[in-house]
Amino acid sequence: MAIAAFFTIALLATSPEAKDIDAFIRKAMDRVEVTPGLSVAVVKGPDVVMTAGYGVADLSKGDAVDADTGFYIASATKAFTALSIAAMAHRGELGLDAPLKTWVGKSPLPADIASSTSLNDLLSHRSGLENEPIAFRAAYSGVHTPRLMSALLAETRRSQPSGTFRYTNTGYNLASTLIEDRFGRGWRAMVDKAVLTPAGMTHTTARIDRVRRTRQVAVGHTPGLDGRMVPSPLQKTDATMQSAGGLVSTARDMARWLEIQVNDGVVDGHRVFPPGLVASTHRSLVAQQTTFGPYVRDGYGLGWQIGRYGDEVLIHHFGNFAGSRAHVSFMPQRGLGVAVMANEDAVAGELVDLVADYVYDRFAGRADVEAHYDAELAALVARRDKRLKGLAVSRAERAARPWSLRAPTRTYIGAYENPAMGRIDVVERDGHMVMKAGAMASPAEAAADPESVRVELIPLTGQIVRFEAPGKLVYDGKTYIRR
Fold it and tell me: What does the alpha-carbon distance between residue 371 and residue 383 come to, in Å, rounded to a whole number?
């Protein structure tokens, strides 16, 4: 099943731990096989233990990953956005605990929500709010303008009681939309000025289209029709890079980010953030009781999950999207931090967590570390095989379904619109129906229900589109009317 020859750059340091981590990653990449590329950063206190790259950034080109290869970090972006907003509060521009109404000015946001919700509520996922149009446009279709997003604030609804943890992108999208509305400051500029520039993270950016023209950026991969890894049909663009998941970073830059976290705003021996500001984002603001793999999560702060790995406090945030996966975590008591990024997530995405776990256990001096992780790799390979088999079976079953649309394809062609969600284009390409929604596109497959088709606007995630005559379709519970 090997998909490419893998290479690694030289380690930044040659400590015994770094050498063992490097050897484990080489072995893991060989055994898991389906992960095209991976990068890692490890810090201990003020020291960078290692930054390294493995594999390739794009299977179609074969360029080797190094410590300066960009990887999309998805929801690990939230910690950057939250820190930039915390910095605004530190400067006295707004209040994190104050009701939104005290600083947003005249806003389309419903008045009752503005009176009963704070930025801390939004950023810790305890607001109970939802706004599907803003979240969908920001992360998926990419069809938006600042004026439109401002108008869509009116679509904000309370979907559950305030104070209850529920993880979504909505709080971050609402916070950044409100800040841009009030201060004329887009989230990219805010994060650049307040976080990336002082941190010296010169290879971290939300402008993915631009950076692709000048530097290497890893391409997200998903299984193709034959099961082999191919570039994902959905890749991030500037329009879909957003405050809840919109940064590209590198192993070298993530080492700086981790150093800043474990040293409360100090990097390279220099204080770059006010004392206590970074640490304030690590304090839990809402309780939760969940697990994610080997990690227990009991709280959430400002862009960070608060929990444990074994008996150690682990502050962390992960991210994934359409062929990209990121793990960012640190143990504050030990001053140890790890970032692992990969350009595959659906088949063996847990590899990034496994690498991080190995780092923590290796530094802890676990006696059976090699035997334990040999077994963990074997289990991951078994899950890989099961997932690939399940995907192949699912695709074969769908291919055998009879086409359920009664009329010829041309009957359904057109642009369908929902005032809040935007537009879906149904087109015919080489005799086949294709659906497009901004940055997303997918061929239509047969669905089980009459007058319906199945699409994967989000790769490997099926959605049903039902046509209702005349000139009407329903997608994700929303009705779109043909123009």
Answer: 19
